[in-house]
# Entry
Amino acid sequence: MLRRLRLSRSDLLDILRALPQDAWAWRPKKRSELVSTYFPTIKEQAQHIASAERWYVQKLWPAPKFARAKTPLERIKTVREFVVGMLRERGVADGKRVVDVDGQK
# Structure
């Protein structure tokens, strides 16, 4: 499980690091055929990825509020380090142990 997390995060970081600075603020143009009115920038999407990962873990165990990061890449790194640490600490890093929280597995 940790290997998959590491590989997927490595791919994401490779893509984000390759972006020119002005690309972080790029936002798709609104199109009338799209239902959604939410068109996040790449920076907002990267921040969402970090926040979502923290949100998932805090459904199982207490998670601290993290200090504001200077960049989305820093936030992604900080949250991932916390997540991996919690998975190891709670003995579920191998993906074999099932956790039961409030009747949900």
About this structure: The helical segments are 2-17, 42-58, 72-89. The chain has a mean pLDDT of 86.
